[in-house]
């Protein structure tokens, strides 16, 4: 738990003590936004820690943020290096300082307690970096992700975190203790697609705040992107236009000037402050204390999950024909989507378009399809526990969530488990309704249909 006291809506610096993660597609402008936000926040009187958590892009943030060519020593070494810090997927236990047993999230580190060689400080901003991949066969970025996930700085500084491109950090649980995820969206299909995925994962993980910043778009494209984000239920924090001075500084490897985009960045900070004040500073929690969801968030998370399941199972049917149990389950998911849609209407929640059909494709075999489905239905369990809390005693919502969960756990899951057994025995009794004998999918291309957050 973080040490910052609860603050009211009148707090002049409502972002104090918060951890803000900036993510998105590669090259979308994540490091640019972190550098600009850091400068804007510092100008408003915040203490700022900028944490470079991108282990694969050497030095990006230091160059954009400060006029110094130097790099601070990687924090991973402060925590004992790879010998002491394990990838959170293999070892989810929290980060501890060398020679200490109390986890860092419980006992935040004072900036002064971090030796000078690990820090670069200028104008109220302190730059830290987790580490870089420097050698061949060094291993995965996991240990660095643990530092990113668990580093807490004592006091009131805002921590801005720059992570690697894409969504892999979600697979390592980096978002566990984040107050707000900011996704940077440039005018590309991939960028919007990644934003949708990030929004879905944030809802699943109960991240308290989420918002998007449109970067480098011309005005008419910017408006279309804003509409697209609104449809996806992602709040827009603001936009930064394509700017010659930023581009020039980026090209020459100089620190980014804030002045040409100060108004735009200031209004993004304002939107972040407003959202934080409205939430009443609910600090990002530990593993075991997920933030409660609002009813709207719960309905959108449930709908997103059903949309994704429906699209995934439809892709399986398109590839393999009308095979059981997918053919039955897809009808059931369709009914779930309808039921959730009715609840959305009743409670005034705008129904977002289904973004999943263009994103999923069937895996190579029915066996893999069954495995993916089993994993997905198992994940459902945890999601629905949280949704039930958000129902807040509303009988109609509880009844629908219960029906959805029962169908998933008592019908779909065992059906997929039996189907997996059947596939492993050679597909006897697969029950195709088209009489076909396709063991392989009809169409190739695309990724797996399994709902794995690590695979975009
Ligand atoms: N709004 C903008 N206008 C002009 N150039 C920009 C803008 N945003 C980012 N850039 C430039 O684009 C390049 C990539 O941005 P960067 O922040 O490094 O992306 P990321 O961290 O997402 O990979 C940089 O050279 C940066 O200067
Ligand atoms: Mg970057």
Summed up, what is this model?
This protein is an alpha/beta fold and 456 residues long. Helix content is 43%, strand content 10%.
- Hetero groups: adenosine-5'-diphosphate, magnesium ion
Specify the CATH architecture of the largest domain: 3-Layer(aba) Sandwich
Structural class: alpha/beta
For the record, the CATH class of the largest domain is Alpha Beta
Total discrete domains: 2
Q: The CATH topology of the largest domain is what? A: Rossmann fold
- Quote the distance from N terminus to C terminus: 31 Å
Based on CA inertia axes, which overall geometry fits? globular
Give the fraction of residues assigned to helices.
40-55%
Number of helices: 13
Q: Find the count of extended strands (DSSP E, 2+ residues).
A: 8
Instruction: Give the H and E element order.
Output: EHEHHEEHEHEHEHEHHHHHH
Unreliable stretches: 1-9, 285-289, 433-456
Biggest sheet strand order reads 3-4-2-5-1-6-7-8
- Portion in beta strands: 5-15%
Rg measurement, Å = 23 Å
Multimeric organization: single chain
Fourth-level CATH superfamily of the largest domain: P-loop containing nucleotide triphosphate hydrolases
